[in-house]
Amino acid sequence: MTARTAACPNCGATIEFRWSSAVQTVCPYCKAVLVRRDVDLEKVGIVSDLPPTSSPIQLGTEGRWQNDGFVVVGRIVYRYDRGGWNEWYLRTMRGGDAWLSDAQGDIAISSLAKQPGLLPAATHLRVGQWYVIDDTRFRVASLTRAHYAGVEGELPFTTWDRDESLFADLDSEGHGDTLRFATIDYSDDTPVAYVGTYVELDQLAPKNLRRFEGW
Amino acid sequence: MSAPAVASLTCPQCGAAIELRTLDQALSVVCASCGSILDARDPNLHVLQEFTARQKFTPQIPLGTRGTLKGEKWEVVGYQVRGATIDGTTYYWEEYLLFNPYKGFRYLTQYDGHWNDVQVLKAAPEETMSGGRPVVTMHGETFKHFQTATAETYFVLGEFPWQVRVGDRATASDFVAPPRMLSKEKTEDETTWSLGTYTPAAQIWSAFGLKTRVPHARGVYANQPDEFVSRAGSMAKRYLLFVAVIVGLILIRLLTASRETVFATNAAFFRPGAPADSLAFVTPSFTVSGRTSNLEVTTEAQVDNGWAYFEYALVNEATGTTYEFGREVSYYYGRDSDGNWSEGSRRDRAVLPSVPPGQYFLRVLPEAEVPTPFLEYRIVVRRDVPTLTPYLICLALLALPPIFVALRAWGMESARWKESDYAPSGDDDDDD
Fold first, then answer.
1. Nearest CA among B26, B77, B81, B76 for reference residue B58
2. Domains, chain A, with CATH or none
3. Residue ranges of E strands in A113-177
4. Pairing assessment for the beta strands A211-212 and B2-3 based on DSSP bridges
5. Which of B23, B41, B123 shows the shortest C-beta gap to A171?
6. Exposed site from B26, B61, B280, B305, fewest CB < 10 Å?
7. Residue B374 falls within a domain, yes or no?
8. Same domain, B67 and B166
9. Residue spans of beta strands (DSSP E) within A173-214
């Protein structure tokens, strides 16, 4: 991955890109949300500081998943009335991407479904319904209305003008290694499905994890 | 660079310092000094609930204690006391929330000195029915429904990744496959499944380096491993192996025993006259050859509704070693309202366990009470005769440990299920 640098149009600091094709990034110094316009970066807003997190993942964390190396380039913090979670955006060595979600220490990796089939409209979603996504049967386990509580790093889209989104979490049959999960994201007009598996942090052979004092 | 692992906050209610150990994962935190439950996500820490607990509890593992349990490092960050009220009695248990930034959350539960190491499951296991009872299967293992009760939160301390309140209620169902237990907690909002593993208190105490005395567990807990059940199974298998070995030994003995007749004689006993002593006689000398083996003396007397008693002495001519033994032969028969009956036998068999080879004779003193004027009898001495008695004694003795363990296992199982929703009705303490 070729490292590219640019100057922050807001504070002038040098911003180093981990992913050269990022659509959006946040200046780590002045927290300006910057969107790429051709070769220039345009400031579209300012985000507040993220609260201290206990997530072991951070921007720049590297690891391996399904025989492909990855690096964490961006993060969206979601919040809802009964909790919150992090979605870390991964770029892989082979040029792919994935999302690593981390909710209360439960880690899952997912990527865009290849054959999402016909996804239900938000108004038709019910807990307990079954859907086939990528040849796997999934059952709707919960529906969560969440909003962006923060953002950092590089992302494949711009997050600036979004508010509340509906997420459907689905689980496959099986347990442990056979258990898979799917998420249907209703942030945009067209629902988007992601499928993935739960993982233990150690399975990712992670490097450059966040270090905590005393741990 | 290390990020701070704790955030320091101030209680808006009483001004006391509060340490937040799970940072952005905490949704509520309890002020240790005034007991207010605070919204940990709110920068102003607004009060969710003022202290309402009727009773204060002290955790056995203090908050902030770190330990290494089953190879993983954990810190105690939350504590709650919950209870279920059954037939007017409230049964309390403790729940400790453990945290490790690299591993997430884990729980320890404690009831009556019984501890469980609990992990929340990512997906619900399969619930079915078997033999009229709900069961849950996971990883091919069947968990039997044990109990369903309403669990209420009575006391909280520390921080939680959910909005905790005193008075929270959930329907809790336990399914057991010792040493594991699956628990389902259902609230209006969600259903959570967790998997507990029975963990002896001593292991918890050493994991967290606790200096207090290890508490003693009372009774049998729902998923307490039943060492006796597994032992009874393996012991029964081992016993069957013993039986097979002993049957094999018996077969070998039956096939290889020489049963060599070393002496036989016919004699008669005349009733009238003569004092008892004069009836005594000695047999001619006979040779017992081969290795030291048992010696069988068979006495067959034609008694009819009478008895005969023989006082024997087997004497080794060379060493003078004497084996003395008395044998009785009695046989009675007749006919009554139930038909023909008989009692006793005309034949008696005595076995001397180990007799070395050599020259021997028998001294015989017969005595009898028979209706006939004389009694014919026959004495046969054989060496190396197979006898089952020691084998049977051996089998009986070897059966004792498995029988003992099976009884213990049965006792433990009935004690376990007595506390469940499936207790035999006779155990209910109804006053009517």
1. B81
2. 4-46 (2.20.28), 62-204 (no CATH)
3. 130-133, 136-153, 164-172
4. parallel
5. B123
6. B280
7. yes
8. yes
9. 180-185, 192-199, 211-212
B429 assigned to some structural domain: no
Report if residue B431 sits inside a domain.
Answer: no
* Interface ipTM: 0.90
> Which tokens belong to B176?
């057991």
The answer on pLDDT for B190 being more than 90 is no
- Say how many C-beta atoms besides its own lie within 10 A of residue B114's C-beta: 21
First-last CA distance in chain B: 70
B430 in A contact zone (CB under 8 Å)? no
CATH code: domain of residue B280: 2.60.120.380
The tens digit of pLDDT for each residue in B107-119 reads: 999 999 999 999 9
Q: Return the exposure string of A156-185: e unless at least 16 CB atoms fall within 10 Å of the residue's CB, then b.
A: eebbeeeeebbbbbbbbeebeeebbbbbbb
- Among left, alpha and beta (phi > 0; psi -120 to 50; other), residue B356 is beta
Of A132-141, B1-10, B12-21, B286-295, the poorest mean pLDDT is in B1-10
Cα B46 → chain centroid: 54
Residues A191 and A143: beta-carbon distance below 8 Å: no
Position A177: which residue type? D
A204 three-class SS: helix
Q: Nearest 5 degrees, angle CA B137-CA B104-CA A186? A: 80
pLDDT band at residue B274 using 50, 70 and 90 as cut-offs: low
Question: Distances from the Cα of B150 to the Cαs of B39, B113, B157, B161, in angstroms?
Answer: 25, 21, 21, 21
Using a CB-CB distance cutoff of 8 angstroms, which residues of chain B are in contact with residue A51?
23-24
Asked whether the beta carbons of B36 and B27 are under 8 A apart, the reply is no
Contact residues, chain A to chain B, C-beta under 8 Å? 51-56, 77, 79, 82-84, 104-106, 141-142, 171-173, 175-176, 179, 181, 198, 201, 209-215
Mind telling me how many Å the CA of A6 is from chain B's nearest CA?
25
Neighbours of B204 (CB within 10 A): 22
The domain in which residue B150 lies consists of: 7-225
Of B125, B124, B121, nearest to B138 by C-alpha is: B125
Nearest residue in chain A measured CA to CA from B101: A54
pTM, rounded to two decimals = 0.78
Closest to A170 in 3D by CA, of A200, A134, A202, A205: A134
DSSP 8-class letter at B140: T
List of residues 6+ apart from A44 with CB closer than 8 A: A33, A34, A35, A158, A160
Q: From chain B, pick out residues whose CB is under 8 angstroms from the CB of A211.
A: 1-3
Cβ(B352)–Cβ(B294) under 8 Å?
yes
Q: B284: which strand partners?
A: none
